[in-house]
Amino acid sequence: GHQWLPAGLVPHMLAILLAVPSTSCSAMQTLTLRSSKDQMPVVGLGLWKVPRETTADAVVDAIKAGYRHFDCACDYGNEAEVGQGLRRAIAEGLVTREQLWVTTKLWNTYHAPEHVLPALRRSLSDLGLEYVDLFLMHFPLAQRFVPFEVRYPPEWVYDPDAPTPTVELAPVPLASTWAAMEEALPAGLARNIGVCNFNTALLRDLLASATQPPSVLQVELHPYNQQPKLVRFAAQHGIAVTGFSPLGAGSYVELGMAGEQDSALRDPVIQSIAERLGVSAAQVVLRWAVQRGYSVVPKSSRPERLAQNLDLFGFELAPDDLAAIATLDRGKRFNDPGVFSEGMNAFLPIYD
After folding, report:
1. Region 302-312: what's the mean pLDDT?
2. Which terminus of the chain is more solvent-facing, meaning fewer CB atoms within 10 Å of its CB: N or C?
3. How many CB atoms lie within 10 A of CB 198?
4. Residue 294 C-beta-side C-alpha neighbours within 13 Å
5. What is the model's pTM?
6. Is 76 a catalytic residue?
7. How many angstroms separate the Cα of 188 from the Cα of each of 68, 69, 181, 306?
8. What integer is the mean pLDDT of 212-225?
9. Mean pLDDT score across all residues of the chain
10. pLDDT score, position 178
11. Confidence tier at 319 by pLDDT (50, 70, 90)
């Protein structure tokens, strides 16, 4: 089943079992999660920064284009609209709930054990679902609790009306948050649980205390931020990986967190591979991720891009291509709370 893998792919990546790809979009490749044996589609649609008013249509359009994996979060502020889109698609007979993969994430303000399941139930209620396929801890940061009725989603700043609005943290150990997340499994509220934005030290510590080890690690991965040690560590421990912002700078340019020149899609190395293979730069970057053995959740609102981002299984990057892309790594992180929190009168580094 692995004869399609490029010869240069390091053997430890085989720890993550991939289904055999096919040239057709319909045969979406999947990652098999360790504990549940559930199949997570390797390409999903990221819902971060999709405006509420277009979210429901975007979800239906994506399902029509062949997407089955949707990467949501309380913090994205559009879960109710995602739910509307999912309900519409199911009602129209485009898809069944069982064919969908829906991920949500626990926001930082709900880390205290007594708030974890209520937060998940709120997401489920917004999404109109009885369970999610994956429940992730969004950041290894616990913030001071904000009740639903005060503000939802609560975002980063504790009190936007304070004279100096800032992020207020709470002394909640990650292990106690994780133990509460584990309860979502027997309760039937989530089929799998995992973490985002963890480094190897945090993962190692979590593995030492967890009853149920994390099934998935979601982190920022693109040609300018390749994190090879982290990807390798996860594979070694049977943790499937999802790369967010897999196309790099895109969404961050409009936030003023990146410049156009930061885009790997414009990199001459990527451009020349794309030209040779007759595919787009985005397809090269996403295919590279899939060949590294992890899943990706790119965002696109344009129908032709949506389809293109799924169409990764009719071509392959050669070992030389992989080697060339490996040289592009700059450790360039666009989503870094240690940087963006300074705009909120706070300093929240999680990466050294």
Report:
1. 93
2. C
3. 24
4. 32
5. 0.92
6. yes
7. 21, 19, 12, 32
8. 98
9. 91
10. 98
11. very high
* Calpha distance 13→175 (Å, rounded): 28
The type of residue at 262 is: D
Banded model confidence at residue 251, pLDDT cuts 50, 70, 90:
low
Mapped onto helix, strand or coil, the DSSP state of residue 110 is helix
> Rounded CA gap, 179 and 261, in Å?
42
pLDDT, average across residues 80-100: 98
Beta carbons within 8 Å of 93's beta carbon, 6+ residues apart = none
What residue has token string 């089929």?
191
pLDDT at 254: 67
- Give the residue ranges of DSSP H helices in the chain: 52-65, 79-91, 113-127, 174-182, 200-209, 228-236, 250-253, 268-277, 281-291, 303-310, 319-326, 337-340
Give the C-alpha separation, 214 to 182, whole Å: 9
Contact yes or no for 126/95 (Cβ under 8 A): no
Among the listed residues 76, 110, 158, 294, the single catalytic one is 76
Measured CA to CA, the distance from residue 77 to residue 50 in angstroms comes to: 9
Q: Which two tokens stand for residue 75?
A: 């913090």
What does the alpha-carbon distance between residue 229 and residue 182 come to, in Å, rounded to a whole number? 27
Mean pLDDT of 168-197: 98
Determine the pLDDT at residue 9: 43
